[in-house]
Amino acid sequence: MAVTAGRPAHEPDAPLNAPLTMASTYVGGGELEYGRYANPTWTAFEEVLGALEDGRALTFSSGMAAVATVLDLVAPGEAVVAPAHAYLGTLHLLATKEQRGQVEVRTVDITDTEAVLKAAKAGDGAALVWLESPTNPMLEIADIAAICAGAHEAGAQVAVDNTFATPLGQRPLDLGADLVVHSATKFLSGHSDLMLGAVVTRDDATFTALDEQRRSRGALPGVLESWLAARGVRTLHLRLERAQTNAATLAERLAGHEAVARVHYPGRGGMISIELVAGPAAADRLTRSTRLWVHATSLGGVQSSFERRRRWSGEPHTVPEALVRMSVGIEDVDDLWADLLEVLDGLAAPQV
Ligand code: PLP
Question: Which of 8, 147, 191, 209 has the most neighbouring CB atoms within 10 Å?
Fold first, then answer.
């Protein structure tokens, strides 16, 4: 599906790839009409993602635009159950909405299914359970199927930010989720060269509501970004396979290194978080001293990158100060390890 979906029909002289359609306006009387409503290049990527998640996808100008659009579906005064750890932009947006009296936020540990469902059922019940699994940056895992079943009983919808797992790691709609959200900026596009977000659903009414939001708010995907994402997603399975093999090897080696106090690795996927024995200064030293690993935020690109997450003031304080989030790329794993080892070997003792 990653390779074949979202392509023009196999007809003589048709291009193999959906072309880049740069248009603000179309000749009237058809389906498209105006550039804020539709674009064939957006559709190409949306068809691939829709096929991969088995739903209908709509893209947005960034992952945050997708997150904001879903949260705006929650009626004023309703409650949202949200993870204690999640992408900090999402947490910040939820906190802002709560401060403005728009929603009530019920924060939970998403690994504790009972606590999630208790929060979903409390009072008049929550409107939405927001999950990220694995979470950014703690890589905690939610039992999506059990939470969806319980949340639906309580009348709540469930949205899953599937950015870290990708549809190749898990398909939340199959597990009962109502909405899937992506920062397509990350693994889906995979080359650290664009910003794009997406929401996927199987429910036609929800799809229409999201489309109306996109038209009226105008948080539109860029055409070039959509085209690049459609090109990037063609190799998602190959990139992820390699990143995952590399990550599994590195997680094991890191766990055996005396400078590393703890490795968070959910057993698959391309993300690892490590806590360093010698504290935050050592973490900063690591992220600024390597040659292959790039000190950079974001994730999911072909090149390995990492950062100490608490360098961002918005990161929850329950995320350890010395935690380094690593986005494992598709380079040679021994090269990646040698690069880390050169610095890690000098970091075993606590830094004063
Ligand atoms: N969701 C997750 C899990 C993320 O990691 C990010 C960004 O880091 C976002 C959403 C936001 O996406 P974007 O940066 O494309 O707006």
Answer: 147
